[in-house]
Predict the 3D structure of the following.
Amino acid sequence: MIQTDILIIGAGPVGLFTVFEAGLLKLRCHLIDSLPQAGGQCSEIYPKKPIYDIPGYPSILAGELIDKLQEQIAPFKPGFTLGERAQIIQKDDQGQFVVTTNKGTIHRAPNIAIAGGLGCFEPRKPPISNISDFEDKGVEYIIKDPEFYRDKKVVVSGGGDSALDWTIFLSDVASEVSLVHRREGFRGALDSVEKVMELSKTGKINLITSAEVVGLNGKGSLEEVVIKHKEKGEFNKHTDHFVPLFGLSPKLGPIGEWGLNITRNAIEVNTFDYSTNIEGVYAIGDINTYPGKLKLILCGFHEATLMVQSAFKRIYPDKNLVLKYTTVNGVNGF
Amino acid sequence: MSDITIYIEDRDGQGHSFKAPTDMNMNLMELCKANDLDVEGTCGGMAMCASCHCYVLSDHALHPKSEDEEDMLDQAFFVEEHSRLACQIPLRKALDGLKIKLAPNGA
């Protein structure tokens, strides 16, 4: 079990900066994030895009901002549980929160800071009505172990880099690989596109363009996909696996069931200390809402700073906090 | 006045008519959000999510799609010939009377 003072859910810029402000108050932090790396959207969606409204930086790449935040918080030795989604929250008999991830990792803390941004990133699921019936019974949204597909028939769908890359990789593993894409052209990396075209020419893969997978059939497990071609209409194709690769999109996820007051996918907070309706649970950054809310990284930094003061008072109700300037006192890590 | 009128059919099939300014550097996704339509605008307008996917119903001449927009539409669902990402359509005078329909929400 991982014990900490503030358990931060979401390792985006706001979650990371919370570690710094908490550290100044000698509070320890641990972060959970569903993505395999820290940085949230900044790392996952737009690492190479410049941000122009971080005070003191006329321009900084999103990925660079994350690197700098990591450097800034390093003295406070934060813990990380990455690639796992915070799933269940409970309160133990000592009034501490116990948060368990989808992989069973248990965390315990007197304070929770939800800095979940837009939620956790999950694979986009094609709108096929019975797709959930076949999940893990032939339909996989993520390829974990390519060996799983050895000597199997696989239909991959999508037009981005991951669809291209996995099609190329699986062509050596699976007995048959088909790639279904809605357009004629691909926009992925040029050499991947060329490789896929070549594999198609030599008959190593079936390339089915201007087409979409619109249906799934099977008794118990997946047996065939229904493919709709723009001109030729619908036809069925026998397969063992269907792997739709349409990228990731954020979903509020399990946090939505934690009993928090939620308006339009955002958690309602009191702007005094960004506390939620559950005492000891705070929400900061893009995931919260209040009158006048702006979804800006810099507002999230402000929210984190005020929030840790309140968390401190919950842990040490009898101690008075005096604001200490880093310029005077420096940064004293753990 | 530099306002134009934009017609938007929401995800429930209900039509709305909005006056939109052309001098505020706004795009169509932002217009939807400003009017409380069910458009998330997750990526903030970088053509990096498809939450503002819409269909252009009128025959206004729009600039062609960028590679980024095409890329993102490849990852969207219910994509049609006249699909666009609303965040990639800046509001300008020539778009007066533009009519769009929000695409169904992807899963």
About this structure: The radius of gyration of chain A is 24 Å. Chain A touches chain B at residues 41, 45-46, 49, 118, 124-127, 158-160, 181-183, 186-187, 246-247, 249-250, 265, 295 (CB under 8 Å).
